[in-house]
Amino acid sequence: MGSVPPEKRGVASGIKNTISQTAGVLSVPFSLMLMTLVIPYNKLSQIVSGTQLINSNEIPLFMEAVNRACLILGVITILAIIPVLRGGDLRKAAVKPKN
């Protein structure tokens, strides 16, 4: 919030919280979508909804789906760090000196 003028910090905080809450809500379906790359959607929806218990022979497949989703989300997170680290340079460039 340090880069936001004091009179705009309330709006900036609201936008930040809205984006954070939206990302939290969308992360679960996105993770399940990534898991369907390994396990069929019908089977995954039964397991997640609790209508069917997972068999012991399906545990490795389910764990592979979880691992794959975590790996993809980890790569996305690492890629998202790059613009965040460069953000300091952008903020300094945006500040105009007073004449």
Low-confidence stretches: none
H/E topology pattern: HHH
Helix-residue proportion:
over 70%
Number of helices: 3
Name the shape in a single word: elongated
Number of strands: 0
Overall description:
It is a single chain. The chain is mainly alpha-helical. The protein has one domain. The chain contains 3 helices and no strands. α1 runs antiparallel to α3. The longest helix has 36 residues. The model has no long low-confidence stretch (mean pLDDT 84).
Question: Can you summarize this structure?
Answer:
The protein is built from 3 helices and no strands. It has 99 residues and is mainly α.
Topology:
Elements: H1 9-35, H2 41-49, H3 59-94
Helix pairs in contact: 1-3
Keywords summarizing the entry:
73% helix, 99 residues, 3 helices, mainly alpha, elongated
